[in-house]
Amino acid sequence: MSIRARLTTKDGTLADAANPIHTTGGAPTVTKATGSAAIALSYTHATEAFVLDAVTVHFNAAPAAAGDLTVTLDSAQGAAYDTVLARVDPSATVATDIVVGFDGGALPCEPGDAVVVAYANPSARTFGATIRTRRVG
Q1: DSSP labels for 70-137?
Q2: Which of 61, 74, 80, 81 is exposed most, by the fewest CB atoms within 10 A?
Q3: Strand-pair category, 14-15 with 2-9
Q4: Which fold would CATH assign to domain 2-136?
């Protein structure tokens, strides 16, 4: 059971990094964004716990200009608990698909936590981004 940031590169190979986490949850929610400007997508639930199943980002072509795409857990407990779950420069890996997932489970989140996906998109690539969550309780 681990968190995996998976990068599909132009030649189809995968790169990934792992850290252990596991939980379960209820009905799925998919938060979506698309466009060709900066990515600023987030999900939070003020009163109920939830689990983060995955974050996906697809680009129509690999970004050419350098810049990090980040997936962050913005903790309701305050900045001392904020955690960067994934940091990827799609131009360095020639990535068109980024999947941040959790082997064997999901990331448990408290009421008020937020999952934030951010990317300046300096190459103005068309993207589709999703945050997949399930409420618990």
Answers
A1: EEEEE-TT-GGG-EEEEEE-HHHHTEEEEEEEEETS-EEE-TT-EEEEEE--TT---EEEEEEEEEE-
A2: 80
A3: antiparallel
A4: Jelly Rolls (2.60.120)
